[in-house]
Amino acid sequence: MAVSSPVVVSLKTLFSVLAVIMLALAVWGVGSDGLASCVDIRKKWVLVTIINYSINLGVILAWIVYKESSWIRIAILIPSALFAGSTITSAYIAMQLFLLSPQESSKDPLYFVLMKRQKEDAIMGYKRGPSILTTRVIISALGCLMLGTFVYVLIVDGSQFHSQLFSACGIASWIDISFMIVTLSVWVAYKESSWISAFFWILSLVCFGSIGTCVYIVVQLFYLSPQQPVSLVLFNSNNKDLLSNDPLLMAHTNA
User: Fold this and answer.
1) Which of 72, 84, 135, 188 is the most buried (most CB within 10 A)?
2) 230 vs 24, 116, 196, CA distance in Å?
3) What does the alpha-carbon distance between residue 155 and residue 45 come to, in Å, rounded to a whole number?
4) Cβ atoms 5, 106 nearer than 8 A
5) How far apart are CA 139 and CA 161, in angstroms?
6) 84 CB neighbour count, 10 Å cutoff
7) How far from each other are the two terminal CA atoms of the chain, in whole angstroms?
8) Residue 250 has what DSSP assignment?
């Protein structure tokens, strides 16, 4: 799908607004119910929410770890995102969009947002990431964990429309998960070559949460050969073909 400059402006606005809204909701949720109540895994549907939240957040954080060349920034971003969720991830994506040059914005902005910006002198320090097979196993296991937990809690505790989920913390958590789904949906729309397939996969994310996320990633991993780096799963077919022989996914001198 071609992405035009007006869409870049829209994405900057979208992720900036998401970050601000989520910050306000997080303050409201924790202020109303207390942090301990928000993460009380003794409440079964809270546990389901936390696992759902953690898997989607983990996928986004894996991209951030791949993208960042500074371990200091990673050490700051990861704990911050674990605590503040889509407040941090949305703000981070908005920042990456604002850092794009005019040429990058007009050419293929989401590619430049996703790619790892790495200096030429870092090439010798490149290390191969996890294998395709290992990643498939990990993502599949996470999807099965989410599915198993959901089915178990549904059987034991009944309907998911539980009073626990309508507390301030519950509402804030589900909105946080929804914002992460928005983030993942933008990625899916970028990757898919047709609006029909994009709509199908985005609908699966909306309906099934992190289970849909895991299924989508595993399916995309099957399009890669075992010799290719896992990071190629981030890119659409055009960019993937361009970068398949470059393990650094384009060294960037402006990093």
Assistant:
1) 188
2) 35, 13, 25
3) 12
4) yes
5) 27
6) 17
7) 26
8) S
Residue in the block written with tokens 């500074």: 70
Amino acid identity of residue 68, one-letter, is E
Phi, psi angles (nearest 5°) of residue 194: -135, 150
Q: Give the pTM.
A: 0.84
Contacts 24+ apart (CB under 8 A), 202-211: 205/181, 206/181, 209/52, 209/56, 209/146, 209/177, 209/181, 210/51, 210/52, 210/53, 210/55, 210/56, 210/142, 210/143, 210/146, 211/143, 211/146, 211/147, 211/150
> Nearest Cα to 250, choosing from 147, 81, 45, 108?
108
pLDDT at 184: 97
What is the maximal distance between C-alpha atoms in the chain?
Answer: 57
- Alpha-carbon torsion 123, 128, 129, 133, what sign? positive
Q: Which long-range contacts (CB under 8 A, 24 or more apart) does 162-169 make?
A: 162/45, 164/43, 164/45, 164/46, 165/45, 165/49, 167/32, 167/33, 167/37, 168/28, 168/29, 168/31, 168/32, 168/33, 169/29, 169/30, 169/32, 169/33, 169/37, 169/38
